[in-house]
Amino acid sequence: MKYKILSIIIVVVYFFQTFFISYGGIGSDSLSYFGIAADLPNPQTDLFPLGYPILLKIIYTFSKDYFWASKILNLLFTAIILLFSYRKSFYFRETVLLFTGKTFYFVFFGAMSESPFIFFMYFLFYFLHEIFSEKKNLYLNALGGSLMILCMFACRYSGIYIYLSILLFSVLMFFKLKDKTYFKPLLLFLVVSGFGIGGYLLFNHMYFGSLTGENLRGKPVWVSYIYVVRDFLGLANAVDPFIGIKPASNSVGSIAFQFFVFIIDVFIFLYLIKYYKKAKETSLYYFHMLLWIMACVYGVAVLVSGYLQQIEEMGVRLMAASNFCLFFSFLILYFQNNSTDKLVWRISCFFFIFLVTYGMKDPGNYLKNKDKIQPQISKFKDKVYLYNDEKNNVTVTTYHFSIINKSFKYTHTNSQKGKLKESIAGTVNPKIKWVKYDTVRDRSKVLYTSQLKFD
Q1: C-alpha distances out from residue 44 to 33, 50, 85, 150, 442, Å
Q2: 164 and 301 in contact (C-beta within 8 Å)?
Q3: Is 313 in the same domain as 393?
Q4: What is the SS3 assignment for 407?
Q5: How many other β-carbons are positioned within 10 Å of the β-carbon of residue 440?
Q6: Consecutive H or E run containing 433
Q7: CA 181, CA 143: separation in Å to the nearest integer?
Q8: Residues 6+ apart with CB under 8 A from 224
Q9: CA-CA distance, 246 to 107, in Å (whole number)?
């Protein structure tokens, strides 16, 4: 009963929390996805895959608002996963606890492509689990899994790393798996999903002239040693189900804190290994092995790709898939090897409360902010580009801890006035494309955030 109650609380909290956050969970990438969705059925770029924009467009036809479209999608993703898990008796307790962790909380919090990516990945795990369980309809499950991985790739190009990890697993385990009942269905899965991914890449090449928008991404920038260290710490943090705090500062105190978290991650990794070894005693040993290979291949592949193109540093967002693999494997094995759930239940509930509380560190009223800006956008229908020209107008938040009588200041990037105006304007009218730099020569075509007023 407690897991049913927690699942309801999770759905409610996930849906309503962003209303009380100043930026509403809308970031720069959100505006890019809204812009692609607004251009459909005539997409102008393949910088991002079309999967998430198509889903947004479908919901937008009913909601007539891209913010609400993203909210409805996240609500559907969370509710469908939980209902499916409960009705199918597919690790319901484990699934509920996944939602108390940092990955599910983060990806279903805002408008980002990771939300459908993780959603389809959950069902990929279901079909693979059914295959390795050697249950009936093996070939049907293989086709279902192929559809899921194609949907993942259509939402994020990094889905190909999941495919490659399954391919690598099959090659490494060929001689041990070739006589298994599920080997041929697994082979069918690889062939069908491989053709599906290849077909999508061919479409991109024929329609846009590139495979994954590689010609639109900037060249890799010089990376300092400190960011190499931060990336490594971010990769290592993929093993941690709950703690994902990564300060933006490179101060001595910030790096020391991240190393402290790294030490915690090492102990967690050793704890996870202890349970992974227990998988050898189960009939689903190869399923757990596959999840661990997925986590490793995906994490390392994303890390390497970060040095070949301009993407953000390794953190909860980029390591979401790896963390999901490891946490899910651990939860399954934990419940199989323990007669009581008191420890994992208490820890999960504590960190869920912590994540929700931490997520409210920069409170605000997004809908109120949106209501102030939305009426002004109609005056700028002739604008083509959107630029935040208030980046130097920085608001610093001061936090005071009375217990230790200490204060510290922090700048919330997404909550700066210019950034807020940019996110709201780009959500209300995504046809106005946001630009990172003020390089448009015809300034009459640019909507500057300073032209919008909150007062």
Answers
A1: 12, 11, 38, 21, 21
A2: yes
A3: no
A4: strand
A5: 13
A6: strand 433-434
A7: 16
A8: none
A9: 16
Assigned domain for 368 exists: no
pLDDT at 226 over 70: yes
Please check whether residues 102 and 198 belong to one and the same domain.
Answer: yes
CA angle 142, 148, 151 (to 5 degrees): 145
Main-chain dihedrals φ then ψ at residue 21, nearest 5 degrees: -110, 135
**Domain, as residue range, for 269:** 1-360
Poorest-pLDDT segment among 197-206, 210-219, 399-408: 399-408
Write the single-letter amino acid at 104. Answer: F
- DSSP states along 223-238: --HHHHHHHHHHHHGG
Same domain, 118 and 244: yes
**Residues with Cβ < 8 Å from 301, sequence gap 6 or more?**
158, 161, 164
Report the mean per-residue pLDDT for the chain.
88
Which of the four pLDDT bands, split at 50, 70 and 90, describes residue 241?
very high
Q: 167 and 102 in one domain?
A: yes
Query: What is the residue type of 108?
Result: F
The token pair at 177 is 């798996």
Write the CB contacts of 196 (distance below 8 Å, at least 6 apart in sequence). 146, 147, 149, 150, 153
Angle at 451 between CA 446 and CA 455, to 5 degrees: 155
**Looking at the structure, do residues 334 and 398 belong to the same domain, yes or no?**
no
- pLDDT at res. 383: 86
Does residue 281 or residue 16 have the better pLDDT? 16
In a domain, 90, yes or no: yes
Domain count, the chain: 2
- Residue 365, C-beta contacts closer than 8 angstroms, at least 6 positions apart: 19, 20, 22
163 has a pLDDT exceeding 70: yes
In residues, how long is the chain? 455
